[in-house]
Amino acid sequence: MPVTDVVFEDDPIGPYDRLSSSQVNTYRSCKRMWFYEKVLKLKILQIPVLYVGRAVEEAICRTLKESPSLMLKTASELTLSNIPIDDNGKPSRDSFAKWPSNRIIPLPIKQRPNSLDELENWALARLEIHLPTALENARKDWARQERKSGDWSEVKYDYCLEMCLNGIRFHLKEVNRCLNTIDDARLNDWRQGKREYWPAPDGYGYNLVGKHSLSVTGPVTIAEAWEIARPWFVEPESEKFSMNAIHPDYWFQGEYDIVYRWDGDIKIVDIKASKGIGDRSGDYIEQLRMYAMLWWTTHNKQETVESLEIWYLGANVTKSIPSPSINEMSVMERDLNQLYVDIKSEKPSIENCPASPMPLRGFSEGGVSTTAPVDLVRCDRCDWQSICSGGSGEEYSLTDNEFYIPGLVSQINTVEIEELNVRFNLDVIVETINYPEGKNPELKVIQNSNRARVDIMVGKNQEGRPTCPESLTKGQNIYLKNVILTSNFKGELTIKVDPLAEILESDEGIEFQSVLDFRARWNIAGMLAYKYERKGIGRTGREWHRKGMVVVNQNNSIKVSGWANDWGHQYEMAEDGNYVLLANIELDAWANQIKGQIGRNSRAHLLS
Q1: Which of 46, 70, 231, 307 is 20 to 30 A off residue 105, Cα-Cα?
Q2: Is 409 in a helix, a strand, or coil?
Q3: pLDDT digits over 487-515, tens only?
Q4: Over the stretch 447-457, which tens digit does the pLDDT of each residue have?
Q5: pTM score
Q6: At what angle do helices 21-29 and 326-343 cross, to 10 degrees?
Q7: Domain positions in the chain
Q8: Which CATH superfamily is domain 419-517 in?
């Protein structure tokens, strides 16, 4: 099965702390780079090509999902979009759920493609319908990023469409192979409506009643071969990261791009909207080998992957990767589990992650291994070279916590980032409660005459439990576990419930605090990792402009933002790698990331 249904009660790790192939590859490339990105949560520059790849893959998958026996090439892009989704973001297994393909009358046989060329023309027409929307959604996603870089106008639609068509042509080779080699038993199984537990997305759901509505009689047709050869991929309407494959012991996870299995053999395909030039092609090989191991371990170590393949859509090349042997996968599983223990079971320090990167690898177009570049080192391309001793930066050396700032009479005492705290356990009484349909509950609470609004930001916590019970009543005593306590510019308290927090009806032995323990303002100092800004037009038509910076010390980070006018002139002077002081800031958080807020009474000062 390509997807793991997690029993949350049995999962000791949770979705935020598992190992992934991208983390493994980053760690092996450079431990310090992994530390910056996975421990300090620094975010690399978001360039358009990262989002183009997602759009290209989405357009391909939406086309693969559709049927030339069910839809004309001019059909709406939304024809198969309205599928039932369960509370976990996966396609629903509710037997009463309505699926779009069941409501569509199949096309007459004479209107279905009758040759590979006709099938390709139909698929190209569908790509031309899906790609513009996928690219526009990707552009909006890119535009929302605080660290976006580059120019979206340089994204070429024709090149993206060509990459999509290359992907479809690779798939059509599989369709043609199915047409010419499928045996009678597999053809009959499909015609009788037999489906996998996780079927390839096609708008029909998990179970069919009776014969497949798109089947015919006699020899297999090209239109049937399209249906039978359809690979598994992530349902485009599912929530992000909801369809991962997860190691039986929960410490590793991955999400396959494409899995072919129509002939009984498993082939995992990784889609890359690139030409395959450069060091990253080495990571793609290792990623697929890890996916082969993941498939093996999630199938009781009884089923192996027959073949692995990378589709380099920019080069119009498919590259085969040798599947690892059972012995190799056993060693890989052991080594990866040890890596998980080393870097995930406890938070590593920066001293354990030296700035000693692996040499760059050489690959030419199509992911062909070649001579490594002799005039480049990995640090030359790293986003963190200005703050890293392996690049142009220096090791962190700020030790003071008392500062005298020009214009201020008294000294400023700072707190180490790791000592900042906005998490509380609170014993409160429900003042008002409302359950609006389709939304998170609206809740206000009181503790010893101190009132606060509760902002329930997510419906479930990281362990899969509801963050708020469904039966709270006014006057009820409740318990807020690990919630975030903040205040606005008026001093009004707000309690936030994020994936690490929970509202309980019993105290479960929790040690509680008072809202009076809340501290509204803090002073911090550290190294500037990078600055960012966002601007736009609000709902009222007024322009808004926010700026921010991420500040680090040796082993922790904080993201601080505020309105552009509140930062002061020294914000513009500060450069990556400088030491800065941020005084009188408010605190906030999301999951494991502490956040700060600059206000009118705050001060940003450049120390070096």
Answers
A1: 231
A2: coil
A3: 876 778 899 999 999 999 988 788 899 98
A4: 998 899 999 99
A5: 0.90
A6: 70
A7: 13-44+244-384, 49-242, 412-416+520-606, 419-517
A8: Nucleic acid-binding proteins (2.40.50.140)
